[in-house]
Specification:
By secondary structure, this protein is α/β, with parallel strands linked by helices. It has one domain: Rossmann fold. The chain is about 25% helix and about 35% strand. The strands form three sheets. A five-stranded parallel beta sheet has the order 4-3-7-8-9, sandwiched between helices. Strand 1 and strand 2 form a beta hairpin. Bound molecules: adenosine monophosphate (AMP). Adenosine monophosphate binds next to strand 2, strand 7 and helix 4.
């Protein structure tokens, strides 16, 4: 299946000069969504994952499905001020601006095997911040999984110490 054809390019969103890769056109296609998630999930069936960490907001959609399919826990990595209990935080740089990510301080146990999931790898700052949060809590980042990788931004170079997989590469 040519998943890349189901990704919509939206020029100048959310800022001038950015070509936003819109995954809603893939998500709304039931067969494509199902097949994409099955393909991704199969890689981790034997990895004994304890927690999937999904990055706000589109990582929640993919991460929730994966956690369900892998029968493991789901942990949201959220923008500041959104999580209700005590959090730890990490600052990071985006393709368009900078931000902070937080996770609950008790969401990951020492030695937990963690799969990090997001919709898209651009410069890699978001995923790296998430990996640092997981490691601060004593978790082991088993892999980082994206639906889309913007290869020309070389975000992967920031994440060399982690196994990294993407379903679609532009
Ligand atoms: P980065 O930290 O640069 O790898 O940015 C990745 C994060 O920003 C992901 O959570 C993406 O959802 C979002 N993002 C960055 N660039 C784009 C883009 N061109 N299209 C869609 N989402 C993007």
């Amino acid at each position: 299946m040519e998943f890349e054809k189901l990704i919509r390019d939206v020029p100048d969103f959310p800022k001038q000069g950015i070509i936003f890769k819109d995954i809603t056109t893939l998500l709304q296609d039931g067969e494509a969504f199902h097949r994409a998630m099955n393909l991704i999930m199969k890689k981790y069936l034997d990895a004994a994952i304890d927690k999937v960490v999904g990055i706000e907001a589109r990582g929640f959609i993919l991460g929730g499905v994966l956690a369900y399919k892998l029968s493991c826990g789901f942990v949201p990595a959220r923008k500041p001020g959104k999580l209700p209990s005590r959090t730890i935080r990490e600052e990071y740089v985006l393709e368009y601006g900078s931000n902070v990510l937080e996770i609950h301080h008790d969401s990951i146990r020492k030695g937990d095997k963690v799969l990090i999931v997001d919709d898209l790898l651009a410069t890699g700052g978001t995923a790296l911040a998430t990996a640092k949060l997981v490691e601060k809590l004593g978790g082991e980042v088993v892999a980082i999984q994206f639906l889309i990788e913007l290869g020309f931004l070389h975000g992967r170079d920031k994440l060399l110490k982690y196994p990294l997989h993407s379903l679609i590469v532009f």
